[in-house]
C-alpha cells in the first residue's frame, strides 16, 4: 500500500470519527508535542555542558529519539482513532441526553405557543366581541331552526276538541283543514284561519276557537247553535237552529223530544225572522209554546197564530213578537178559561170557541 493511499485512508477514517474522538485526538497530539519540546529543551541544556565529541553522539541519539517519538505519536493517534468502550458508552449516553433536550425544547415551544395564543385572545377588544355577538346569535338561531324543521318533531301535533255535541271530532278536524304533514309552527301561525274554516263548514257551529299549549298541543273549542224548534214540512220534521237556519236532513218522529215547538212556515225568510224574534223571549214563555203558524189576515200580512200548551192561542204580528209576547205572562193569570189573546191591534182576550 502506497503512502498516498494510506493518507487517503486516514482521512476517510478521520471523517468517520465522532466529534468527541476528534477532540481527543487533537488533545493527545498537542500533549505529545509539548512533551517532545520539553525533552528537546532538556537535551539542549545537557548538550551545552558536554564536550564536542560527546555533543555529536547526543545529536545522533536525538535524531533517533525524534524518529521514535514520531512513530509513537502516530501509534497514539491511531489508537485514538479507534473507538474505545468508554467512548462508545459516552456516545450512547449522548443519545438520551439529546432526546431529553429535544423533549424540553418541544415542551418550551408548546408553552410559548399557548402563551402567544392567550395574549392574542386578551388583545381582542371587547367592542369586536359585541359587534360579532348579534351575528353569532342569529346564526345559532338559524341553525337550530334548520335542524328543527328537518326533524320529524317539527310536525308533531296533539289536537283536542271540546264543546262538540252534534259534530264528531273527525268532522271538526276535517273542517279545520289541519293536515298531518303540516308543521307545528305553521299550524300555530294559522290558528285563526283554521278556526274560521270550522265555523264556515257547518251550520251547527256558532263559534270556533283554537288555542296553543306548549309544546305541541292545540285545543279546539267549538260552540254549537241550539235547536229551538222543528219545522214541519211535507210530513217531515227539520231541525231549526237558534241562528234561524234549518238543517236539511229530516228527523224521524221517534227522535223528537217530549216537548218541542213546531213551526209551520211556507216562507223560510219568515221562519228565520221568527227565530230571531224568539231569542228575546223568556224561557218560561218559550217552554209553553206548542205550535206557530203563519195565518195572515186582511189587515196583517205577517200575522202569526201561536198555540200554547194550555190550549190558549195568541194572535201577534211577526214584527211585534219580541215586543208583545212577553205580556202573556201577566195576562195568563187573568184567564179563567181557554181563550184567544189578540195582540194584532191592541191587547185583549176572548173565549176560544
Task: List the SSEs and their pairings.
Layout: H1 3-16, H2 19-49, H3 52-81, H4 85-123, H5 126-150, E1 158-162, H6 169-176, H7 184-189, H8 191-201, E2 205-213, E3 217-224, E4 227-233, E5 236-241, E6 246-251, E7 262-264, H9 268-278, H10 283-286, E8 289-294, E9 303-308, E10 313-317, H11 321-324, H12 328-331, E11 339-342, E12 348-351
Parallel strand pairs: 1-3, 4-7, 7-8, 10-11
Antiparallel strand pairs: 2-3, 4-5, 5-6, 8-9, 9-10, 11-12
Which overall shape is indicated by the principal axes computed on the Cα atoms?
Answer: rod-shaped
Physical arrangement of strands within the biggest beta sheet: 6-5-4-7-8-9-10-11-12
CATH topology of the domain at 227-351: Rossmann fold
How much helicity do the residues have? 40-55%
Low-confidence stretches: 65-74, 76-94
Q: Taking all residues together, what is the mean pLDDT?
A: 81
- List how many beta strands DSSP finds: 12
Q: Note the gap between the termini.
A: 169 Å
**What CATH first level of the domain at 227-351 would be assigned?**
Alpha Beta
Q: Roughly how many Å is the radius of gyration? A: 62 Å
Order of helices and strands: HHHHHEHHHEEEEEEHHEEEHHEE
Largest sheet: 9 strands, mixed
The portion of residues forming beta strands comes to 15-25%
Q: What is the CATH architecture assignment of the domain at 227-351?
A: 3-Layer(aba) Sandwich
Give the helix tally.
12
Kindly name the structural category.
Answer: alpha/beta
Amino acid at each position: 500500500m502506497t503512502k498516498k493511499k494510506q493518507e487517503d485512508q486516514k482521512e476517510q477514517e478521520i471523517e468517520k470519527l465522532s466529534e468527541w474522538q476528534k477532540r481527543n485526538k487533537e488533545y493527545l497530539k498537542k500533549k505529545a508535542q509539548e512533551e517532545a519540546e520539553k525533552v528537546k529543551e532538556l537535551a539542549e541544556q545537557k548538550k551545552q555542558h558536554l564536550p564536542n565529541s560527546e555533543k555529536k553522539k547526543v545529536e545522533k541519539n536525538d535524531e533517533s529519539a525524534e524518529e521514535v517519538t514520531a512513530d509513537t505519536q502516530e501509534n497514539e493517534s491511531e489508537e485514538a482513532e479507534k473507538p474505545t468502550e468508554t467512548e462508545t458508552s459516552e456516545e450512547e449516553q449522548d443519545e438520551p441526553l439529546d432526546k431529553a433536550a429535544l423533549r424540553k425544547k418541544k415542551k418550551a415551544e408548546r408553552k410559548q405557543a399557548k402563551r402567544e395564543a392567550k395574549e392574542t385572545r386578551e388583545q381582542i377588544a371587547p367592542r369586536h366581541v359585541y359587534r360579532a355577538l348579534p351575528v353569532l346569535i342569529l346564526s345559532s338561531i338559524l341553525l337550530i331552526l334548520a335542524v328543527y324543521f328537518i326533524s320529524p318533531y317539527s310536525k308533531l301535533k296533539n289536537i283536542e276538541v271540546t264543546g262538540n255535541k252534534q259534530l264528531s271530532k273527525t268532522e271538526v278536524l276535517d273542517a279545520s283543514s289541519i293536515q298531518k304533514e303540516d308543521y307545528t309552527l305553521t299550524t300555530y301561525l294559522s290558528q285563526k284561519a283554521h278556526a274560521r274554516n270550522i265555523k264556515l263548514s257547518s251550520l251547527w257551529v256558532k263559534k270556533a276557537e283554537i288555542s296553543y299549549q306548549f309544546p305541541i298541543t292545540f285545543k279546539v273549542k267549538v260552540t254549537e247553535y241550539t235547536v229551538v224548534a222543528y219545522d214541519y214540512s211535507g210530513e217531515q220534521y227539520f231541525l231549526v237552529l237558534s241562528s234561524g237556519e234549518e238543517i236539511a236532513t229530516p228527523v224521524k218522529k221517534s227522535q223528537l223530544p217530549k216537548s218541542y215547538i213546531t213551526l209551520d212556515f211556507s216562507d223560510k225568510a219568515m221562519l228565520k225572522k221568527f227565530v230571531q224574534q224568539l231569542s228575546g223571549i223568556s224561557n218560561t214563555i218559550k217552554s209553553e209554546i206548542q205550535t206557530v203558524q203563519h195565518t195572515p189576515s186582511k189587515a196583517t200580512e205577517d200575522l202569526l197564530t201561536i198555540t200554547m200548551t194550555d190550549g190558549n192561542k195568541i194572535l201577534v204580528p211577526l214584527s211585534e213578537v219580541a215586543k208583545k209576547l212577553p205580556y202573556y205572562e201577566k195576562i195568563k193569570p187573568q184567564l179563567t178559561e181557554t181563550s184567544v189573546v189578540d195582540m194584532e191591534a191592541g191587547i185583549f182576550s176572548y173565549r176560544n170557541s
